[in-house]
Amino acid sequence: MNLDKDTPPGTGNVFQEIRIGYVEQFNNGVHSIVNNFYGTQRKPQTDSRDLDNVKSIRDDILRYVEKTLPFVAYTWKDKYMALWTDILELPEVVAVIYNRGQQEDTRFNRKEVCHIINYLGKYANGGIGIFRNYVASRIAECFEDGKAHSVRPELGFRPTKEIQSAINKLMEEKYA
Fold this sequence. Notes:
Number of domains: 1
Strand content: 5-15%
Order of helices and strands: EEHHHHHHH
Number of helices: 7
Radius of gyration: 24 Å
Strand order of the largest sheet: 1-2
Shape: elongated
Number of strands: 2
Low-confidence stretches: 41-49
Structural class: mainly alpha
């Protein structure tokens, strides 16, 4: 790495060389691109998902999910909230559930919660589902007290394959 800079490396100075092996735009005679970045090192950002914050967000999620309890089959009534507590500890779920993205008026990923509700309602439990009668529009109404809300379409989607597999494994090991 040949950097023609007179500034000595010290606290806050960063000298970086980045080599890119794949280039989208083709230029004849160019085999590689070298970008040199000169700047100051940023302070590491604090993780917003500290333990107290995660616990309060998890409580918010459980209160949100508890609204679906009237739709749960009788055999799952006693286990439903415990199942959700365990689901919220799965690494695959933790990776996405606490990031609300651009959703407004929420502290968690409401869309992903709805995807998991859809999966539990229609496909989990050996393909039977754990709800008595899964009707997405009725569940959407219970979330927003009858108002039209953007979660209605999300109650028709499933979570990623990784989350589905993790939920299935959890249910087989702990709730079978």
